[in-house]
Design a protein that fits this description.
The chain is mostly helical and 78 residues long. It has one domain. The chain is built from 3 helices and no strands. α1 crosses α2. The longest helix has 14 residues.
Amino acid sequence: MADVDINKQSFSKLIEDYIITHKGIEYIEAILAICEKHEVDPRDCKRLLTKSIMEKVEVEAMNLNMLQGGNPSLALDI
């Protein structure tokens, strides 16, 4: 990591600020952009995310059908 001072609160604040200043961007994209800017390996950023952001990412991933179990809104009525 390039920024020694980066911790869970500061990293999560960077993500929230990025979301505010870049209207319409998803949390997943914001996390990747912040990781790139601060030279953080995206595989290592989970420990830097607050529970709130993790929940938002999980919802996005479900909506994008990226999680096992898929998108619950796509369920078929049989």
